[in-house]
Every structure is written in C-alpha cells, then in structure tokens.
Design goal:
Strand content: 15-25%
CATH architecture of the largest domain: 3-Layer(aba) Sandwich
Oligomer: single chain
Helix content: 25-40%
Radius of gyration: 22 Å
Number of domains: 2
CATH superfamily of the largest domain: Gcn5-related N-acetyltransferase (GNAT)
Number of helices: 12
Order of helices and strands: EHHEEEEHEEHEHEHHEHHEEEHHEEH
Largest sheet: 11 strands, mixed
CATH topology of the largest domain: Aminopeptidase
Structural class: alpha+beta
C-alpha cells in the first residue's frame, strides 16, 4: 500500500498568492468576510498591510494530491487596534513585568467583528479534524519560529472554538446583538410580535425620519458610482474622527469591495436637500445580512433624529425579510439594539500564550469573564421586547 503524504502547510504573505477559487472552496462562502475578494480588497487598498500593523501571514493546508484542503487568514501584528476583542490589559501587564508582547499573531478578518471560519476546512476533506489540527499546529510553529508572544483567534465558529479548547487553547467569550427572522412576512409582521411600547417607539422613529424630508437610496456594488463612494468615505471618516481618529479603511477599499463583491455589497445612503448626509454599508451572506460601516455628517443627529437606526437596523431587517435571510448581524456593542428587536448571542475567541506566567493570569481572567458573559446574556435576553418570549422562541 502506498503511504499517503501528510498534510503540507504553505505560508503566504499575500492573499493574492492563492487563486480565489481555491481559497473560497475552503471558506465556503456562507459569510462574505473570509472570501478571497474581501481579504484582497483589504490588502490591495492598503488597509491591511505591514505598514498599518497587519502583515498578512495566511496559511494554506494541502492534501496528498496538492489540492487546498484548508485555509487560515492570519496577520502578524505590532498593536491591538481593529480587533474588537481586546487584549490591551494583557499586553500592558506583560510589558510592565519585563516581557515583550508584540509582535503577536492574529487569526481574524481585519476590522471585522463577524463570526466565520478561521481554521477553514474544505467540505470534501477526508479528515476535517486532521486538517484543522494541522493548521493549528502550524500557527504554534510560526509563534515559535518568529519569536511571537501569542496567537489570538477571534470570532471563530463555535465548533472551531471547542476543538481548540480540547487541544489546550484558552477559551474566551463575549456577546453581540443579532436580529433573528422568525419567518416574518414583512416589517409590520415583525412589529406585531413586539410589545406595544416598543412597537409604538419604532413606528415613531421611522415616521420622524420619513417626515424629515430625507431620501433613502440603495446601491449595490454593481450600481454604486465613484461620487457615492466619495461621499460615503467622507461620512465614514467624519464619524471615525468623532470617536477615535481616522478610520482604518481607505477610500480604495470601498472601490475594491464594490468591484470584487458586486451585488453582495449594499450601500444605503441618505440624501437631504441635495446632499448626502449619511450612509451604511451592508454585506449579504447566504444566511445573514451584515451591517459593517456607518458614516454621517456631524449635524445629522440634530437634523434627522433616529437616522442611524433607520439605515443600520430597520432597513436591514426589511431587506433580510425580503431576501428570506435568517438573521441580521449589526456589529459589536449597543444595548440600544435590544429595544429594536436584536437579541444577545455569544461570540468566541481562542488564545495561545507562550509565557507560562502570562498564560496562567489570562486563564484565570477569562474563566471569570466567561461566567460574567453568560450571566449578562441571560439577563439581557430576559429584556428583549418580544411578546411571549425572545425571538429565538418564535423560530420554527
């Protein structure tokens, strides 16, 4: 009997070093963010590169016949910006104790807090567990070869998180708010399942937007024009400056995204008195609509109250119902989403820490944190605005 060649792992310093079809066959295409086109848009636009602290270091697992059986989006980082599950405290404690926390290895999609495959395995792989273990093993080998302090896999799928826990990775949790489609016929049918108070509040918010004179326009990636992208980028940067400084994404990223993702990208833009005053970028997956980036003029809140809720939440719900999608994911944070029909769901992260002292400290911290997250989800879920229970209880 001929002995089969073991799984071989390639390290790539650019997503363009693998054909899109090979990469996408492994990631599955359920959500758009781990697809080749999205990652290439980040790299080609200069948004994710070594100079911005995101040095691409992707992995490709190849089987005995040389075909790709697994992939892993990874980046060497010298900071912790743009991750959404943060480790600043760990870095500070380690460096005050004389350690060197950066550089580290980040397995994620830059600037994107969306759950998706991180140790992605081709559906036809003969031994999916072996491929996943080979990718995880290569990550730890990279950590040793390059003298990195740690590896951080953020927003993996639950089954990946559980598999990593079984081989000794530290397991962390957090939560987001997602809207779940319980087979609603339309937006009014969704509202009928809410308490009277919340139903009335949402109708009032939408009415005020409609009465403001705002015109709402939608553009797919195939329809959006340079002037729309110019306006959206300007609004996005203004909003970023209000919070923390310049946005991570370049103007070129949005153009690359439109060209590469086409109808999977959707811009919802608001115009008032002939001027673009706000915009929201959403991306379609096979099961969900994902809200990603938002931008508005500084005076938008005063001129058109509740416009953010309209473009980011209510328009998204309408489109998800129309498309028969099962949920809307609207990003991190925001308990205000709870009152608008979004329910808390857990998210996951897995960590490999080299230094034993730091590993012990992190393990103790995240064990306590997991308990707090579970309690928070339970409390928040009890306060969803649905009549007769939360949205999950209405699902078929």
């Amino acid at each position: 009997m001929t002995e089969q060649r073991p799984i071989f792992i390639e390290r790539l310093d650019s997503i363009e070093q693998i054909p899109a079809a090979e990469w996408d066959a492994c990631t599955g295409g359920q959500e758009p963010f781990t697809c080749h086109g999205f990652l290439a848009a980040l790299e080609c636009s200069g948004s994710a590169k070594a100079a911005t602290g995101w040095q691409p270091s992707h992995l490709v697992a190849r089987g005995p016949d040389g075909s790709a059986v697994g992939v892993c989006p990874a980046y060497i980082k010298n900071h912790s910006f743009g991750e959404f599950i943060f480790d600043w405290g760990w870095a500070d404690a380690f460096e005050r104790a004389g350690g060197r926390y950066y550089p580290k290895l980040q397995v994620s999609v830059p600037f994107t807090p969306v759950t998706g495959p991180r140790l992605a395995v081709h559906p036809d792989a003969a031994d999916r567990g072996a491929v996943r273990q080979a990718l995880a093993g290569e990550l730890t080998a990279m950590c040793e070869d390059l003298g990195l302090s740690s590896i951080h896999i953020t927003f993996p799928r639950r089954e990946e998180w559980e598999a990593l826990g079984r081989i000794g990775w530290l397991q962390r949790t957090a939560h987001q708010y997602h809207w779940h489609n319980a087979g609603y016929r339309d937006f009014d049918d969704f509202l009928a399942h809410l308490s009277h108070r919340r139903r009335k509040e949402i109708r009032r918010e939408r009415r005020l937007v409609a009465e403001s004179g705002v015109e709402i326009h939608t553009f797919s990636g195939r329809e959006v024009q340079p002037e729309h992208l110019d306006a959206f980028y300007r609004l996005y940067q203004q909003t970023c400056w209000q919070k923390f400084g310049p946005g991570y994404l370049t103007r070129g990223f949005f153009a690359e995204l439109a060209a590469r993702l086409g109808d999977r990208a959707l811009w919802i833009m608001a115009c008032l008195d002939g001027e673009w005053i706000a915009g929201a970028l959403h991306l379609y997956g096979t099961e969900a609509l994902y809200g990603r980036n938002w931008g508005c003029r500084l005076d938008t809140r005063e001129r058109v109250p509740h416009l953010h809720f309209e473009l980011c939440y209510y328009q998204a719900i309408e489109r998800a119902i129309a498309a028969g999608l099962v949920r809307v994911e609207a990003g991190v944070q925001g308990e205000h989403k709870l009152h608008r029909g979004y329910a808390p769901v857990p998210t996951f992260a897995a960590h490999w820490i080299v230094h034993p002292g730091l590993r012990r400290g992190v393990a103790e911290f995240i064990a306590h944190e997991r308990e707090m997250v579970a309690e928070a989800i339970e409390v928040l879920d009890a306060h969803t605005p649905y009549r007769g229970g939360g949205p999950l209880s209405d699902l078929p």
